[in-house]
Amino acid sequence: MQRGTPAKRTRKPAVTDLQEIRFGRKSGAIYRRSDIANSSFFFRTHLKQERRYYRKSLETTDRAEALERAEKTMWEVLTKVDSGQPVMANAMDLGEAVSAFSKHLANEVEIGQLRTRTEEMQRYRVQTGLKFLKAKYPNGLRTKLSDIDGVVFKDYLRWRQSALAEKKRTIRRSVVRDELLVIRKMFKYCFREQICSERQIPKWDFLPEKEPPKRRRITYEEVDRFWKITSDWAVEAEPDSAEDYHRRIVYHASDLVRQSGLRSGELFGLLNKNAKPLNERELEICVRADTSKVGRERSIIVDCPFFIEFWLERYQRYRKPDEYLFSPHKCGTTSARDVFYHSYSSLRVALKELNRIDLYHWRHWYITERLLAGEQVHDIAKATGTSITQIEKTYSHVRTEQVTRRFNLTDIKHNRDGGVTLKRYAKTRKKWTKFD
Description:
Blueprint: E1 2-3, E2 15-23, E3 26-33, E4 41-47, E5 52-57, H1 63-83, H2 94-110, H3 116-136, H4 156-165, H5 173-192, H6 220-234, H7 242-260, H8 264-268, E6 275-277, E7 282-287, E8 298-303, H9 305-315, H10 337-351, H11 359-372, H12 377-384, H13 388-394, H14 396-407, E9 410-414, E10 420-425, E11 432-435
Antiparallel strand pairs: 1-2, 2-3, 3-4, 4-5, 6-7, 7-8, 9-10, 10-11
Helix pairs in contact: 2-3, 2-5, 3-5, 6-7, 7-10, 7-11
């Protein structure tokens, strides 16, 4: 095998440290990707029979080692070509494809095209897709991409519904569709990188619901029972233990969402410097753009004297500016998201027959209360970091109730001259005024 000197940088900005290599009449090259920080070497060679390039990560940053691995890879490619076997179809298995896609997501975060929270969600949805493929293909992550048929994903909806039915839960088709879009994103990435063919790209034949989701409205009786049960549950653990601390996180984090309308990602992304008490009652919260679902920063003032007195001044362990407002018992530089949901599963046992109430229900409660209080929709949208359209769609039943109640305070009297007289009643319906 002849090894040439390192060639000049290619015109393509995504390739650097290009070095051509020859094996008889066959040529190839090793290179790094400049769009990936600390990129390892890659190998590529053109497959005339398949009319495309074969590419493979050599998983090393050492040039000499990369050349040795490239030589071995070239032998494998030529062996398959000489025997008439397709090269690309067997180049990568499912596990390797997921690893390559994960690196791609990390790079998108690094260059600012993807938020960290979005990357986490997409990784989670890919893992859900892997569980499905493992159920369909016995080799699991070792399954060759060429063995996967995208049509198999037509059974994905039934599989998701069946798995949740065992837990007496349901899932919307729109949620399943969103999962499939991310899984398809991974396969499309593999197709662009010439790792798989179009045959492997997921296909499905169901449509999402036309009606937007409507959050179940919590009753005042449920709210009262929830806080009584939760306050008792929060103090049942051994005092000053990690469990005691995590239970208090559940209580105070839920209470803060109830009073602020924060999303869970916004809540668990708060650092101490993002939550500053203005006085003994008011807390100024700055939601950073990188933790917001809509990617926009906003500041809100929350009236929460109980939270300030008990969490910030009494129970919180880590209070440095760059430590999390809610963090685990053992570390202030880690978000308490995981320990919150782990502890919440214990709370569900205490709640027993009480209808399922999750953290997001308190955001729903906050928006509903503001609507019933007669606040303008655009003001609520600004305070909660969402759109007017989204509020009107999701809370249409609350809006309808609000409007029709206002209708009931106005009567119309038809006059003989063809005009009308309006009677506007006060809320007690004991007083009214007339006007033309």
